[in-house]
Write a structure and sequence with these properties.
Helix content is about 35%, strand content about 30%. It has one domain. The strands form 2 sheets. A 7-stranded mixed sheet has the order 1-2-8-9-5-4-3, sandwiched between helices. Strands 6-7 form a two-stranded antiparallel ribbon. It starts with a helix and ends with a helix. Helix 1 runs antiparallel to helix 3. A hairpin with a 7-residue loop joins strand 3 and strand 4. By secondary structure, it is α+β, with helices and mostly antiparallel strands. The chain has 4 helices and 9 strands, in the order H-E-E-H-E-E-E-H-E-E-E-E-H.
């Protein structure tokens, strides 16, 4: 498992280096997903978002979390979009969201899988939602998506 994480982080660092070196402004860049064999999109790398950016797109923010457990995040919000839970972690820059936010998102997803039992998530009262299965990066924000990335993709489409 450690080798897989190292390969993933090396791949992400290399891809980010290429992106910065060529000055690409593509709206969609593919990176490895939390799900085996999938991809997770990086969208709108040249934009900075606030919670209100997502509220305007239809996301309903519900609860703000302490940033102490998520290194270098500036804000963390839990909310809903189309009846699915989406946690959004904000960072100072897009680069921080990619370099620090993606490994944090993957770790959160892996932890959720470890806490599940027989395909059902265990109930951890008072904690954050534990059913995130994928993530998406939009500008300076990392979105943790319930079950799959479908609703996160739709939320970003509403912003684009």
């Amino acid at each position: 498992m450690q080798i897989t994480k190292r390969i993933l982080l090396s791949t992400l660092a290399g891809a980010l280096g290429i992106l910065i070196a060529c000055g690409c402004q593509n709206s969609i860049i593919e990176y490895p997903s939390a799900k085996e064999g999938g991809t997770s999109s990086i969208r709108l790398p040249d934009r900075n978002f606030t919670p209100d950016s997502f509220v305007t797109a239809g996301w309903k923010k519900s609860k703000q979390y302490d940033t102490a457990t998520v290194p270098e995040s500036t804000e963390i919000w839990y909310g809903f979009f189309n009846q699915k839970d989406i946690e959004i972690r904000f960072y100072e820059t897009h680069e921080a969201a990619v370099e620090i936010g993606i490994p944090g998102a993957i770790s959160s997803i892996e932890s959720a899988v470890k806490r599940s039992k027989g395909g059902k998530l265990l109930d951890f009262s008072g904690g954050s939602f534990t059913g995130y299965a994928d993530y998406l990066v939009a500008g300076n924000a990392v979105l943790l998506c319930e079950f799959d990335r479908t609703q996160c993709d739709q939320l970003i489409a509403n912003i684009e």
